[in-house]
Amino acid sequence: STIGLATTDISLHAPSQIAASVKVHAEELKYSVVIAMAKNQSLNIIDHVINELLEQRVDGIIVNIPSNSQQIIQIQHLCRNIPVLFMDVDPKESCLSVMTDSREGGQQGITHLIEFGHTSIALITGPQSSVSARLRFDGWIKALQKHRISPISIQEGDWSSASGYALTKALCYSHQHPTAICFANDQMALGGLRALHELRIQIPEQISVIGYDDTEDSAFFYPPLTTIAQDFKELGKQAVEKLLHKMNAPESNISSLVLPTSLVKRETST
Ligand code: IPT
Fold this sequence. Notes:
Elements: E1 2-8, H1 13-28, E2 32-38, H2 43-55, E3 60-64, H3 69-79, E4 84-86, E5 98-100, H4 102-115, E6 121-125, H5 131-146, E7 153-156, H6 161-173, E8 180-183, H7 186-198, E9 208-210, E10 227-229, H8 232-248, E11 257-259, E12 262-264
Parallel strand pairs: 1-2, 1-3, 3-4, 5-11, 6-7, 6-8, 8-9
Antiparallel strand pairs: 10-12
Helix pairs in contact: 1-8, 2-3, 4-5, 6-7
1-methylethyl 1-thio-beta-D-galactopyranoside (IPT) binds next to helix 1.
């Protein structure tokens, strides 16, 4: 049998690690995996990607494309009786999902910075079209409000290191001087580290940096990146297991799973 994986751009580090894990675990269980990729999040693209998988007669589908309530219904409708599992939705949705709690992870990152005494914090978000980017931002704001702190700047990136680089440069050229920058993912933080280095701003002495994801490369950024870890191997494994369970027992009531995030303190924060 075959599992379909509908995913966002796998040239991004996080979705590629999830795809790798899905493939490894499915194959261990003797299932093959076909991948269809969406480069953006329009409704039409989702239709297209799901149909591409259905045409290949997949027996179940994992969707790692940010999906709002309307898109969830749309996808479930297209799939009819083929089980679907989502990986980037609001945990409050009632569909079958395996995810980490981005709101919780966002809170952990800001709380870490506040514990080090930071009150002048700049936020670089992911694209607002992404469910998890919005949830991380909610978590940041919630943690800041708890300590009556307002962010000194909020900028929207697109998950890429190029956007992190450009936004960090712009931030430092403006009159705002944060003592910490909180990025919604490690790739944008990677671009930020290079921008700070070029501006001869010392990390973490002058500016602390925190990312989100803990992809396999993040420990090898310079300096090694403090970040919020998602366990991509476990996410992929659990997604495969839950989906197979649903495929093999369609009538059973399978519950969604939220995996914990954790702070990984390295050398970019003080
Ligand atoms: C999410 C990553 O955290 C982020 O860095 C980016 O790659 C994004 O995916 C792309 O959609 S992880 C996702 C399972 C919420």
